[in-house]
Specification:
Elements lengths: L6 E6 L4 H16 L6 E7 L5 H9 L8 H5 L2 E5 L5 H11 L5 E6 L6 H10 L8 E4 L7 H14 L5 E3 L7 H4 L1 H6 L13 E9 L8 H26 L8 H13 L1 E11 L17 E8 L8 E7 L6 E8 L16 E7 L3 E9 L6 E9 H5 L6 H11 L8 H12 L7 E3 L6 H4 L12
Parallel strand pairs: 1-2, 1-4, 2-3, 4-5, 5-6, 7-10, 8-15
Antiparallel strand pairs: 7-11, 8-9, 9-10, 11-12, 12-13, 13-14
Helix pairs in contact: 1-12, 5-6, 6-13, 9-10, 9-13, 10-13
């Protein structure tokens, strides 16, 4: 048979929200930018749809241009029940004539991963050049994550496995390693000698929306803290890698995660959460969590890390805030100086800035000033989305922004060891007083 060097994207769970709202739009954006080359897309669902019905279904969320008609000609559909082996034979037939490089995206819940893996393997659908991408959450706890890792690694080599945390492909998160390790003035000051504390915040001003059933099972700790916030903590807290490649970066992230010690935790649930669709009427699931942690590494000895995520708070934003030690500033503190800080703003504003003290013109007092890099101003508004970056890196075989098996297990080890208190109740749009006062000798940056 003639070799087809194109790539085939197989979306398992191809009618779900993730496929419709993120995956297909991202692939279309890559196509518009000329970054796909020869490709086919096979969407799957247990529903019996014609190809035309599937294209209409996934096209609803796509900002269509004149290239849409060309793009959609590459979309196919296969009815597939994850638990019916015969359906994988139909998928195998659909793959004939498509690109030989295959990218299987498991856009589904983790309880389906094992049966999908077994069938992909037993039907020889995964070849040497294939990549298998697993959407979060990866397991429910340390035990299930270890079992899942073990079952996957029995079927596929680690080089073919891509565990997803889409936060790692956001431009400003992906910029963290470059910011730290290619700027000699920055990395040395990110240490206990200069830093008072670190905040990592992901605040949302909306509720669970259509995800009530899923969210009630996991909550803020397992849905967001376990994955996104701990990944950000590892990127901030890691030591300098030997090389800026996937192996060395992930080695250092694992070492950082092994040093995490949870010191204090507070949780909350917004008023009205129990009335959301899919949520248990007596639910005690947390929609907010704030954590104080220590990183037991010589570089960070004694520096508290404050991590917060929550729904229905006052603002929607994500950022990393590093406050430097006021004791390292000059004796001019009596003239109104404030602690210096470094802020990495992930969303909605994207940029990096330092806050420094400057002299007030015509006087002897001081005032704060920003030294700022505005990502959108410099690169324009059309920066690739996290999922565009994710697909591009997977196609290139670059695993730096994907999570290795031992990272996943360390993250679950941390979460399994946490004592999760009963949530306090808070009004939507407000930050509970207990959370406002959670930081010792300080306040959350920009939260209220």
């Amino acid at each position: 048979m003639e070799v087809n060097n194109g790539v085939t994207f197989v979306l398992l769970g191809g009618t779900g929200d993730l496929a419709r709202k993120k995956l297909l739009p991202s692939l279309y954006n890559l196509y518009k930018k000329g970054k796909l080359g020869e490709f086919d897309i096979i969407g799957t669902s247990r529903h019996d749809l014609s190809r035309e019905e599937y294209v209409r279904h996934v096209g609803v969320n796509i900002d269509k241009h004149e290239t849409w008609d060309e793009f959609k000609e590459n979309i196919r559909f296969a009815q597939l029940n994850f638990y019916n082996p015969e359906d994988y034979e139909v998928l195998q037939e659909k793959l004939l004539g498509c690109g030989d490089e295959r990218l299987f995206y498991l856009a589904t819940l983790p309880q389906h991963f094992d049966v999908i893996n077994d069938n992909l393997s037993s039907h020889d659908l995964v070849n040497e050049t294939s990549k298998v991408l697993y959407e979060k959450p990866f397991g429910d706890d340390l035990k299930s994550a270890k079992e899942l890792n073990r079952s996957i690694n029995e079927l596929f080599p680690e080089k073919n496995i891509y565990r997803i945390d889409h936060y790692l492909d956001k431009e400003l998160v992906a910029n963290l390693s470059i910011l730290r390790f290619s700027n000699s003035i920055i990395d040395p000051i990110l240490s206990a000698e200069y830093v008072d504390h670190v905040q990592i915040i992901a605040s949302e001003n909306f509720g669970v929306e259509e995800r009530g059933g899923f969210y009630d099972r996991y909550g803020a700790v397992k849905d967001f803290f376990q994955s996104h916030l701990l990944q950000l903590l590892s990127l901030v807290g890691m030591s300098t890698p030997e090389k800026l490649d996937s192996r060395c970066i992930r080695d250092e992230k694992v070492r950082a995660l092994r040093g995490v010690d949870i010191l204090d935790t507070i949780t909350g649930q917004y008023e009205g959460y129990r009335g959301e669709e899919g949520v248990d009427e007596d639910s005690t699931t947390e929609t907010l969590t704030a954590v104080r942690a220590a990183l037991n590494r010589p570089r960070w000895q004694g520096v508290p890390f404050y991590l917060l995520t929550g729904k229905n708070l006052a603002k929607k934003y994500s950022q990393i805030y590093v406050q430097f030690d006021k004791n390292n500033q000059s004796s001019m503190s009596s003239n109104g100086t404030i602690p210096n800080s470094l802020v990495v703003s992930i969303q909605p504003d994207r940029g990096i800035y330092f806050v420094i003290n400057t002299k007030v013109p015509g006087g002897i007092g001081t005032e704060p000033a920003k030294m700022e890099f505005c990502h959108t101003c410099h690169h324009g508004p059309n920066t690739p989305s996290a999922y565009e970056n994710l697909f591009s890196q997977a196609l290139a075989g670059d695993q730096r922004s994907f999570i290795r098996y031992d990272e996943i297990e360390e993250q679950w080890r941390i979460v399994d060891g946490m004592e999760i208190p009963e949530p306090i109740t808070y009004e939507p749009g407000e930050v509970p007083e207990e959370v406002q006062n959670f930081i010792q000798d300080g306040e959350w940056h920009g939260l209220s």
